[in-house]
Amino acid sequence: MRRRSIALPYSVVPRVALLVWCVLGAFALPALAATGVGGSMSGPLSLFVALSIIGLFSTGFFAGAETAFLSANLPRLQALADEGNRAARTAVAVCGPRERTQAAILLGTNIATVVAASSSLVLLTRTTEGLTPETRGALNTLIMTPLILLIGEIIPKSIGRAHPDFVLLRASRLLAMTDWLFRPVVHAVLGVSLLFMRLTGQKGEVHIVTREDLRLLAEMGEDEGVLELEHRRMIHGVLETYEQRVEQVMRPFTDIISLEEGANVTEFMAQVAECGYSRIPVYRERVDNIVGVVYVLDVIYAETPPETIDPVIRRDLQFVPETKRVATLLAELRFRHNPMAFVVDEYGGIIGLVTMEDLVEEIVGEIRDERDDEDDDYEVNELTRTIECDGKTEVDALNEELEKVDAEIPDGDYETIAGFVIQQLDRIPSVSDVAETDDVMVIVLAADERSVQRVRIIAKRTGERDRNGTNGK
Predict the structure, then answer these.
(1) What structural domains does the chain harbor?
(2) Verdict on whether the full-model pTM lies above 0.70
(3) Which of 62, 240, 366, 403 has its CA 20 to 30 A from that of 380?
């Protein structure tokens, strides 16, 4: 059998040599300065000034790059890389071996910090010969500590946290060079670390996927034909429940149909037949003083047919703040087997009602049943690029239709199309009033002194958008 010689790969040799030189140089400087040899060290002062500045800004570079590396949106970078962006390709390659890259960054940070502090100490040693070594060390600490904190930590990490993708794209090439240079030492350190983790029974790195990652993956899946539009919307709906507040999905107080405590059963059944709801809130004296809920089934299956609704009123109500997250409330309603909750403001006043159906619709879309009137829904005419809808129709639902004709109602401090019109006009609209943006024209078809009841939305064509370059009010 032919013997195979074992040789160190050629690519490792220059890296090890350069790394040893950097480490020895970095850690030799403080030793020389501490022993006073720095005072007789050859070389101009400008060399040590340059080393101090380079070390300081290198510390900042590694700090900002590390923050960007940990915060970057990898699916978005992968999408850019697939489109041919060379910087994105390098960034994705750097982010692949996360533990190795992070170890290389930390090693680079430590070396840069030592170089900066050591070089400044040599400068002090050569320019302040009358001071003792202890005084020079204390003075060096007073000077370099705030500089390293400010330039080497706080500022770069703030930038990296605010713009992680941008920073990582710009720093990816230098990070790749750092990874190439430190790889032999990093492999050795990671090997020891892995051995220690195995001995102590610990697991390796846990990769965290953010909600933004899942949104982007869903959009990429739809673009590639893997996901249907409805499935992508459902995924977005699930993710949005963790961000939406209850006040955004509740039925407003003015839409709550209720009966006064003591009402007779005949009146209750007539109200149920008219509105189609199976549960009616009950108030005492004032409509905003809700004291219970009456279920149709409780009335029908009562052992003794009641004359009034009082014997069958359920008084175990659930009140929730308007700021509660939708996902949290959905879990609470499921746990308590409660089909509804009343929403209160910070003063304790009831401002709305939210049901389990309302929350589920935020995920799966509109759920239609026998009590839903088709006339209350919006009517889309793709030929004329118009939509007629109720004033309470949500802007998000309308934008899903307008997306088909490359138009959009802008986001704002409102949830419904009526809120959009009121904000645009800054008053309660009248019939025939018009609210206009670059993309759409909204005409009020029906309104009263307090609200917008029905509107017609016209999606502008490209030529109209060019002629109407500014938003109208």
Answers:
(1) 12-200 (no CATH), 211-240 (no CATH), 246-364 (3.10.580.10), 374-467 (3.30.465.10)
(2) no
(3) 240
